TrEMBL record:
InterPro entries on file: RNase_H-like (IPR053151), RNase_H-like_dom_plant (IPR044730), RNaseH-like_sf (IPR012337), RNaseH_domain (IPR002156), RNaseH_sf (IPR036397)
Record protein name field: RNase H type-1 domain-containing protein
One Pfam family here: RVT_3
GO MF terms, alphabetically ordered: nucleic acid binding; RNA-DNA hybrid ribonuclease activity
Superkingdom of source: Eukaryota
Annotated RNase H type-1 domain residues: 72-192
Amino acid sequence: MLICWWLWRRRNVFLFEGKRISKHAILASVEAIWRSLHDAHSRFSQSFGQECVTSKLVAQWQTPPEGWVKVNIDGAFSHFVSGVACGGVVRDTHGNFIKGFLFKGLEGDCLSAKLWGCLHGLKLSWDLGYRNVILESDSADVVDLLRREMNDLHADRNIIAEIHSLMRRDWRLDVRLISRWANTAADYLAKAGFSAMAGFHTVVSPDAELYSLLVKDNG
């Protein structure tokens, strides 16, 4: 059924947008959906009658250890807005805002938006000179993709390959899964990316709303 739906979507995208979706992209997407359903079923089976696995994630943002910085990232996707967006925040061991970013891309989906966030968050942290970095995302799929070997047929293989290349640089990097309630600052910047011009933008100082989220995190 998934393959039939993708073939139908491939036809419509070609007819109405003039774009082609490759067979490899379709197979990779079907595989990713099947894997997600399988993992979800496994987690449900293991946790039946117990607390949901995701409920064990800490709901409050936590400062990184001494000598480390933490970059939180998130992505945004909407069927009603052209393109995708992502954003992120770099903070020090005291929770102080160092720098933020937002990025607006021309095409993609929810997963690719979050992967763009990882890529730009890591690039920004490296360019700022930090070599002890914790990268946090509220997407289990993203964290899983970053922690294991890349599937060459994955639809986002180019972004994933670039992220893996960054991760192999000479630094200490810890990739963590967090609750979305501990990721509100990055979520705010990701959604703000829809209002930005296409491309990458740094945030030197937080606006009032972002500042309030940062204060809440440190509370």
